[in-house]
């Protein structure tokens, strides 16, 4: 039972996947932001 209590924190049963999903969304958002910034940098360099 100790293993199950470590997997599921007390007071939050069945919601152990939320932090992972949020982390995935944050990573995707960061990747999109990086590509957007790179695109703006390329356009700025081309104008110079």
Automatic annotation (TrEMBL):
The chain crosses the membrane at residues 21-42. The keyword Transmembrane applies. It comes from the Bacteria. Keywords: Membrane, Transmembrane, Transmembrane helix. This is Uncharacterized protein. It comes from Thermomonospora umbrina.
């Amino acid at each position: 039972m100790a293993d199950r209590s470590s997997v599921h924190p007390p007071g939050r049963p069945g919601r152990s996947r939320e932090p992972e999903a949020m982390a995935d969304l944050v990573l995707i958002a960061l990747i999109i932001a990086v590509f957007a910034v790179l695109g703006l940098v390329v356009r700025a360099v081309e104008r110079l």
